[in-house]
Amino acid sequence: MTHFARSSIIIAVFFGIDKVAGFVRALIINNQFGLSYELDVFNAANNIPDLLSSLISGGALLVAFIPVLSEYLEKRGRSEAWDLFSRVLNLAFMVTAAIAVVAALFAPWLVSRVIAPNFPPEQIALTIQLMRLDLIAIMVFSISGLVMAGLYANQHFILPASAPILYNVGQIFGAVVLSPDTPYSFGPLTLPAMGLGIHGLVYGVIIGALLHLGIQIPGLIRYKFKWKPVLGLRTPGVRQVLRLMGPRVATVFFITLFFIVRDNLASGMGEGAVTALNLGWFIMQVPETMLGTAIAIALLPTISEIFARGELDHFRDTVQGAVQVLLALTIPAAVLLAVGLPPLVTTAFPAYSPEEVSMVVAVTRIYLLGLAGHALLEIGSRSFYAQKNAIVPLIAAGINAAGYVMVAVMLARSLGIEGIALANSIAFSIEALALLWLLNRAYPGLLKVRATLVRVLLGASAGALVTFGVMRFVPLPDVFAAAGGMLLGLAVAIPFIWTEIKTLLKMGSKAQPQENSL
Fold first, then answer.
1. Pairwise pLDDT comparison (262 vs 298), residue with the higher score
2. Which of 21, 202, 303, 420 is the most exposed place for a label (fewest CB within 10 A)?
3. Which residue has the higher pLDDT, 132 or 2?
4. Among the residues of 228-272, which ranges form H helices?
5. Can you tell me the distance from the alpha carbon of 34 to that of 404, in angstroms, rounded to the nearest whole number?
6. Cα separation of 515 and 441, whole Å?
7. Is the C-alpha dihedral spanning 73, 78, 79, 83 positive or negative?
8. Could you give the CA distance from residue 363 to residue 360 in angstroms, rounded to a whole number?
């Protein structure tokens, strides 16, 4: 097993723990509030704060900051690296605070005109309140997100990987202690109830943000970080970070635009529409994160080093291997989950009516149509970033966002919330194919995946038939039949994709398998 394979598996394990915690949080919150206007409001209120987090302290600044900070550590030592860290940290916090104040002042206009214009007046008022509270958590994340970058640059991963799990713990505390009117019982343990309702969920988000930061503080102490009250916009390192950050910020903005448009359109489609779309998206993101994101995160440094050495054939072969592996993993995952989904949703959310379960299942299945596209997009975009080309992903994201808005508006009119989910799957899949097509033009042969696709489709079909057969004919409770059927279906599909599994284990080495004949 190569270093790349080990890294992918380790990252996937941590993501898996985070997703389990996130799923527990979703179970508690959705069973407590159901597909209600209150939960619609909570989800809609997160849009602008989430956008600020993504643009300033999340993925955009993280991607721009880590290479520069790593270079400082390598060439100038830890003292100068921490000096640069302080300057960027102070700048990020000040900018976040300023934008948060502006967003809070303009919250009535943002909610009534942009986020949820079709909400009734009382829901708009509540959304404004929750959004303003959420902005407090974003100010904490402006620090915590950069602490992640600092620890990553020092090759420390355990505490940053634990931070998202603690964030979920804070939200769970808000859901089981702060929100309910009655005490929450779990076996012999009974937790007190604060009766704060939907506001308790937001306070849980703030607590989670503080835990997200707090768990990483020991890492800063270990690496002898000393904060300095300095800015220095003219400092070369700060300017380099800002230059790298520009295209990435715009790209992340276009990605976040999908969710703002989604909730805007769904806000006028009745109670529970926004929540159903959020829940369907969350379910689809479980396999996407554990497969697509985990492999893509491990892939970026690997192909960056290969490209820097000028080994272009090796670069092509490694990206091709990643494409083959993700096709082999995501298509069966999407098909098996789509078949076995209804009993899982029914069991997970017993408070939902049959109509509400059907709505969640429908949008989740449509999101699953785009699972492979979402995963391949992570590979395509990072393949350009590895070549220090952030412009092509930016242009692709911009064109894709514009196309999504038009398609989503049209499909929402005819298909309702299912049309919104379908527009998402179509848009991200087209963007992924476009980036891979451009890569294939530069590196001919990168998209030789015909044999992989044939095997994957045969394996996914066989697995789906087995899963359906178990659910239909085996006399077990529905949820056990679904879970057992999916496991048995996966076992049937694995021999069809065994070549790609071996490719994953050898990826990063020059001896990795290439496209095999049928």
1. 262
2. 21
3. 132
4. 236-266
5. 29
6. 18
7. positive
8. 5
User: What single letter denotes the amino acid at residue 40?
Assistant: D
Length of the chain: 518
Sequential DSSP letters for 372-418 = HHHHHHHHHHHHHHHTT--HHHHHHHHHHHHHHHHHHHHHHHHHTHH
Q: How far is CA 486 from CA 338, 350, 413, 415, in A?
A: 10, 21, 35, 29
Please tell me the distance from the alpha carbon of residue 102 to that of residue 96, in angstroms, as a whole number.
Answer: 10
Query: What six digits make up the tokens of 137?
Result: 């958590």
Interatomic CA distance for residues 25 and 76, integer angstroms: 43
Q: Copy the structure tokens of residue 361.
A: 């299942």
| Residues linked to residue 190 through DSSP beta bridges, in sequence order | 185
Going from the C-alpha of 509 to that of each of 318, 356, 387, 505, the distances in angstroms are: 8, 48, 19, 10
Phi, psi of 157 (to 5 degrees): -120, -20
Residues 73/127, Cβ–Cβ less than 8 Å: no
Dist CA 245 CA 100 (whole Å): 20
Q: Say which amino acid occupies 192.
A: P
Rg (alpha carbons) of the chain, rounded to whole number? 23
Dihedral angle computed from the Cα positions of residues 162, 168, 171 and 177, in that order, rounded to the nearest 10 degrees: -90
Mean pLDDT for the chain overall: 84
Instruction: Find the largest Cα–Cα distance for the chain.
Output: 71
Average pLDDT over residues 241-255: 76
Separation CA 232–CA 409 (nearest Å)? 45
pLDDT (tens digit per residue) in 30-45 = 777 776 777 788 878 8
Cα distances from 187 to residues 42, 184, 191, 257, in angstroms, run 29, 10, 11, 42
Which two tokens mark 188?
């012999």
Instruction: Tell me the residue type at 68.
Output: V
The token pair that represents 35 in the structure block = 């597909």
- What is the rounded CA–CA span in Å between residue 141 and residue 155? 21
Residue 417 near residue 360 (C-beta atoms within 8 A) = no
Q: Are 47 and 135 in contact (CB under 8 A)?
A: no
Is the confidence at residue 454, as pLDDT, over 90? Answer: yes
**Could you tell me which residues come within 8 angstroms of residue 29 by beta carbon, excluding any fewer than 6 positions away?**
39, 171, 175, 201
- Residue 82's SS3 state is helix
Whether residue 412 contacts residue 274, with contact meaning beta carbons closer than 8 Å, is answered with no
**Direct distance between the N- and C-terminal alpha carbons of the chain, in angstroms, rounded to an integer:** 25
